[in-house]
Amino acid sequence: STLCMLVLVAVHVVVVARVCMFEGTLPHRLRLGTWEAHAVYLLAFPACTAATVVVAAEAGTMWTLVSATWLTVCICWSLLCLVGVWRAVTYEEVLWIAEDDDEDDGYYCDAECDQLSSLPVNRSLCVGCFPWTWASTIADIEPVDVEDILERGPRGTALLDGDDLEEVDSPGKMPVQVEVVSSRSSGSICHPFFSHCGRVTGVSWLQAHMSSDVLCRLYSHLDQRYTDWEAMLTVELRQLQGPITHGVLSICFDGMKWPWLYPLEVLFRSIAGMLTAVVIMSPFSPAPALIGLAVLAVLFFVVVLLALPHVHAVENVLVLGTSMHVFAVSSALLAQFVGGVEPPLCAMACLGFSLPLLAILIGYSLVVTLSLFSAVTCAPMSDEEARAHTRYDVELSLRGLKDQWVITMPASCSQPVDDVHIHLVPRPQGPPELRFFVEKGEKPKLEFPVLDYLATVHRLEPPQVMLFGPITGAEGALAYRSEAIYYDEDWQALLYNFCDKDPSTRPHAGWLAKTLLDLIRSRSMRGVILVLDLIAIPAHVLVPPAPDEEDEDMAQPLNGSARSDDRRPPYGSRPTANIEMWNRSGRGRR
What angle do CA 523, 525, 527 make, to 5 degrees? Predict the structure, then answer.
């Protein structure tokens, strides 16, 4: 036990040192003392049993000192945890937040939180029996007064920016505005799939839904160059973390509605280990020690039965079963030493009590281990995760200064978006042939400079047209360029400059700009964002001929798309180029 504890402390110190050196945020659950609290819980019984045996056998000064230290640590640690829990509850440093109308279903939260986690998602293998949630600490935030939020926020509805009301079914899902101070490095989030972190609500018509990885990458990029920018996020109340319920005393509050169980159980295990050592080493009758074990088990059983400390019933049943097992084994051994029961019969009784409970505990441990493994490695399994991607309307890209990086994330756009792809098919002579694809089933893309989107003054306004075009010879995420055109700007000049920037469109920039201008005038509407994707088809790529206009499945007018308006006139005056209108899904760029 001593060796295990020393190794754990050494590894923990190395991990904390690495996080402090290379990351901006040290999660409360990584602070010194948090892992060691779990180790004391696991080692209390065997360590106290061995320590009492060593002390009774007088094995030597060094080992006696080590054993006495273990006994002192276990007893003092349980008493210190009792004092810490009593102080936190008495002085309202922690608050009980009920998840639903049932007050027994909820969790403890710090009255003042200073860290942010990803949105807790149930990723256990059996959701009904083991409703565990997965979350990862991702950032430090400005301290948030949770008690004040609960007092001001109405239960049932939560007021967001503007006049919109978002329904919430529990206080834990109440939206909260937080300011990110620092974040972890993007590679430190141990979750390969989308883990929702919060949404940026500074731009009312375009709310970006950030994952943990996107927030960490965005903060790392901007924090290297700017020091006065603010990352304001709208998150849920259950994502907030504090130093008490997620620090050294986290084991007392995780999944608990009665936080005194952990220190009492450590004390119970320590005393049970001492009594077990007395049964082993006593030269006299072990009956008094066995009676003490039985009484201790009954008292612990009664306390757990009255308090039902765990939120989930399965864990309460396991704790009650363990205490009853201690009572049963103690009674069987007492019957052997006092009642004269034959040793083989007593051994069979002990095995009969131990094996079923051991099988249940092993099965429970396997489920916990597999759930933890699947939470880290498996694709989304729950309905909540499956529905997450259906709530987003567009893909939002934020481009860094001087096009050094680009980050893409899902977003909700209150403005209708009309997405049209334009394939530039080369011909032996003259301008290229234009073929139009109206996207169906794929989410359109919007892109803005990151500082424009995060600006706290002069908020970003919705453009009239969003242009995407190729960059010849470029590869990867930055292999395209974009331009936002607003209603009061010179459309023709902006279109010409956009087409003149790349060799693939420069030879016919004037003609292409006029064609795009005719398309915009005939298709765009006030209040609707028109997205035009210019895709240059290489000359060596074989392109099938355009379908005949009689083929109703392939040739449909552009204004027949799902986002069109019946009052919109037909396509309008056709440009001078040969334009076939396809309604076929095909994405050629990026």
Answer: 145
Structure tokens at 459: 């908020």
E strand or H helix at 142: strand 137-145
Q: How many residues does the chain have?
A: 590
* CA pair distance 257, 104, nearest whole angstrom: 7
Residue 406 phi, psi dihedral angles, 5° rounding: -145, 140
Task: Find the DSSP H helices in 439-543.
Answer: 450-454, 491-499, 509-523
Q: Give the whole-angstrom CA distance, residue 211 versus residue 217.
A: 10
* 254, 275 contact by CB (below 8 A): no
CA dihedral 104, 253, 178, 454 (to 10 degrees): -110
CB atoms within 10 A of CB 352: 11
Per residue in 496-551, pLDDT (tens digit) is 998 888 888 888 888 889 989 998 888 888 889 999 988 887 766 655 665 554 34
Give residue-wise pLDDT tens across range 161-187: 333 445 566 787 888 889 888 887 655
Residues 6+ apart with CB under 8 A from 353: 325, 328, 329, 332
Question: Within 13 Å, how many C-alpha atoms sit on residue 522's CB side?
Answer: 16
The whole-angstrom separation of Cα 43 and Cα 1 is 7
Q: What tens digit of pLDDT does each residue of 388-429 get?
A: 666 678 899 998 877 788 888 888 898 899 888 888 888 877
Give the DSSP per-residue string, 11-55: HHHHHHHHHHHH-S---GGGSTTHHHHHHHHHHHHHHHHHHHHHH
Distances in whole angstroms, Cα of residue 294 to Cα of each of 269, 272, 291, 350? 13, 10, 5, 14
8-state DSSP, 538: P
CA distance 542 to 498: 27
Structure-model confidence comparison of residues 372 and 278, the more confident one: 278
Instruction: Give the span between the Cα atoms of 189 and 213, in whole angstroms.
Output: 7
Per-residue burial over 259-285, b if 16 or more Cβ lie within 10 Å, else e, is bbbbbbbbbbbbbbbbbbbbbeeeeee
Q: Which residue from 538, 108, 163 is spatially nearest to 309, judged by alpha carbons?
A: 108
Task: Transcribe 74-87 into DSSP letters.
Answer: HHHHHHHHHHHHHH
Closest CA to 217 of 236, 197, 235, 237: 197
